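Weekend entry, working from home. Most of the wet-lab plans are on hold until the incubator is repaired, so I used the time to fold the two sequences that have been sitting in the queue since the last round of cloning. Logging both here for the record. First:
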Amino acid sequence: MLSDLSSLVGIVEKLSAGSITCVGDVMLDRFFEGQVNRLSPEAPIPVLEVDSETSMPGGAGNVVRNIAALGAAARLISVVGNDEPGRSVEDLLAAQDNLSARLIFEKNRLTTVKSRYLAARQQLLRADREVTSPVTENTSKAIVSAVRKEISKRNGVLVLSDYGKGVLGADLIRILIDIAKQNGTKVIIDPKGNFFDIYRGANLITPNLQELSSASGMSTKCDSEVVAAARHIIQNAGVKAVLATRSEQGMSLVTMEEATHLKARAREVFDVSGAGDTVVAIVAVALDVGADLKTAATLANIAAGVVVGKNGTAVVHTSEILSGLHETALMGSELKISALSEASNKIASWREKGLRCGFTNGCFDLLHPGHISLLSQAKETCDRLIVGLNSDRSVRHLKGENRPVQSELSRAQVLASLADVDLVIIFDDATPIAVIETLRPDILIKGSDYELKDVVGGDLVSKWGGEVFLADILPGHSTTSTIEKLEGNNFCKTN
């Protein structure tokens, strides 16, 4: 998925145009942070010296916070108790930009509160106060009315965030899904419990591994088992797709036709609280602005890797997703750098799929806009672009002892990080003729500063039925002139 970085970036840049309605259990998340320096004299337990206390909306409240953090319009419909925590939830939601909330206050109902106690960024204890009894019939009717009103404005995506606290009963879920289907609205479910058939008709459900295993009655210890359990749910519960969140193992997107496994992207994990909410939010907004399921899941996986590196039920911003995308692309760039023997196998597999393979080559020392233009034109001529890169020894032979400026590995990694480049091969000869003979590209690309008769390997490519393409040269750019300018301004010094 990250091979098409520009498409992913394009979706991220559209996220602020999303508009999502979310219905579900909202709660108050409280965090008490401090230091532990002693044990209690009353019992062998640590004493937390509290330095700070923060509160934020949790559950469905955290889903809409994540939606709003993307710049998208978030609308929450939920139920709280007529108590101090309920009013705190209301105030916290009202303070959020891009977010509107329709909270129904029920008498004699407790607002769910989750209190977490942390020291050195680690949780010591969580204390919950909650009620799980169903909401009243009048409350359910009010929820239905509010959903009809919101969906009539825009048929985008409806998120049902089910935490099992009584807001989303089975009958209400079925009614809301029916309303969504009648309006052409996609439905995403963050499920709870063991009976996923109440979500029949949903476009996507996002269980964690434990929920998937419980609902399917099947093991979920490996990729194949996750796929089997997910397809059991799809077939028996009547949902279209499952996105299973798998903690350190990443995520698995499963339909009846295919399965995609996404590796976890987190560098450090400090707190997984609310990570599932972030996933649901990103997927919902991405689908709303035109992404397909794979793209939405890829972005959600990037976002999840960001949010678990934060304390508390945190949110992720578009800038962080973009940074994560670029970082991940660079991390995976080394997979595009290949030895000639390995490259032959890759190209053979591409050809078996009917893909057209192109080849270009150069030193690519201090990559500049002229290089980017050539590579972009080259990629337009083929399905897979292979770049032959002169080794350091080869560059010194061609350009002199002071070149290259960057090492062959540095140049290879920079090239491999580009979306237009599918494979990089470092060669040691003065010319790439041996590489061309081995790979037998369908098209050979060079700059228009060459004549067709002077293109190395052009005669060979033509002989086996390929073609030679001369790309337009972007004037005013060259590595040599850049180096000369830097040296003339004393930016570069030789020892």
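Second, folded right after the first finished:
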Amino acid sequence: MTLQRELEIIELIQKEVKPALGCTEPIAVSLAVARSCEALRQIGVEVSHLTVEVSANILKNGMGVGIPGTGMIGLHIASALAVTCGKSCYGLEVLKDLSPAAIEAAKVMVDAKKVKVVLADTTMKLYIKAWAYGSDAAGAEHSAATEIKNNHDSIVSVVRDGEEILAPQHIEPMNCAGSACTSAAGASASGAAVAGAAGSGSASGSALGSAGSVASGSASGSAGSVASGSAGAAAEKTTLDYKLSVKEILEFAQEASFENIKFILESVKLNKALAEEGLRDDYGLRVGKTILAREHSDVFGSSVMTYAMAATAAASDARMAGCTLPAMSNSGSGNQGITVTMPVIAVAEKMGVGEEKLARALVLSHLVAIHIKGYLGKLSALCGCVIASTGSSCGIVYLQGGGYEQVCSAIKNMIGNITGMVCDGAKVGCALKVASGVSSSVQAAVLAMDNICISSNDGIIEDCIEKTICNLGRIGAEGMQTTDRMILDIMVCK
């Protein structure tokens, strides 16, 4: 593999693996709102109310998930918090400066019905347009609107008073040191429409840089660096544009310089902290904590599978209930980032492997998930834990000394097993799906290491691993469109 190709793949990892505080759909809404608020504050206008347009999939994943630190669920409080403490320079950690005063001010906004959330007229899966309104000292009314498309942190347009103030290719977050990015906890406010209940939360962490460095922001830079912001030519590349294959991913994981990939270990730090928090306190359904409970040891035992299921589910328990710790996300999903890392970490701990081997296993796991997700798009009716647990199964195979054939077998075993798992919105119940995915992940890896692989005569499995992945993508991106609409219809009509 050439150095240039190695750097391209590092760029992709940097683009798709980054910290996120809270579920990424409401957090993406917070990011758009924060940027609109900053555009108004640039001209001395404080925000009075909001209108947020979202695609159906953003609505679906934002309705029932806990918003960090608030004890509430939904897009209304996520939007209001962006007014009272949001800073776009933090990217998917936009609510990093969360405080009791900011939370209280946001709740006042919601109670005053100053936030309106509506379904956007779009067929796009990931779309947000956040309108912020306010008046200047002379009483003149002003507005600003920020659009996010395709990626959770991809700001494509910022308009103020009907004029585009930044061309898409030049859009970057406001400087956190600047006054325009300073949020007033007492700002007035917001609320109405698709609301809810539950949570707890705060922030930390920073985006992955290259060659072991850590940089703030989101957009990929060149030659292994990451620039602050969300735009730039590299950010416009889709995953499929990188033309990955499972064979090349494994080659990269095996041969890339450890110094150039050790930054991936930041995902160990962040996601393990979430898991420990979930095992320590009572979050959500307490799936992870229950699996490890002494009184259930006769059911679950003390195997590596049990530990992997518990640790991963516990991290999801905490995150989906509104824990204030960030997750290292994968492909725009915190739960996917948790599921792609924690089973690999659990197996590595049980085996006592060193940092380098763990880093290579995690790179493999992350990249396989990113590769598969490229065929599905960021949001789909297919549950993300299917993709993430497939990645972690490959990482587990690598830790056990498996090669290309075993990695392919693990992927096929996973796709032949839990492909039908649907996404019915982000919520505390996601921890149950995560636990199921991890169980399948370990099982698929064990079978693969015994050279047991589901046959190409079965279902959507092909002899060619890339065709198999493509088949999965077709099911998620095309075949489940009606399922997606039906799920949303059921959810909003309850």
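Plan for Monday: verify the second prediction. The chain is about 50% helix and 10% strand.
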